[in-house]
Amino acid sequence: MGARKTEERLLQVANALEQHASFGDLVPTRVYATER
Fold it and tell me: Which residue, 12, 10, 17, is CA-closest to 33?
């Protein structure tokens, strides 16, 4: 159950990063979030 909430949180963080960061910054951030 906790994993699902974490996944939703990561999606929100990723969305915020997409709006805030450039595309070049976004790719490594996405990979890092996926690995965790």
Answer: 10
How many domains are contained in the chain?
1
Report if residue 1 sits inside a domain: no
Q: Quick one: pLDDT at residue 26? A: 59
Domain limits for position 15? 7-35
pLDDT (tens digit per residue) in 8-36: 999 998 888 777 655 556 566 666 666 65
- Cβ burial 1-34 (10 Å sphere, 16+ → b, else e): eeeeeeeeeeeeeeeeeeeeeeeeeeeeeeeeee
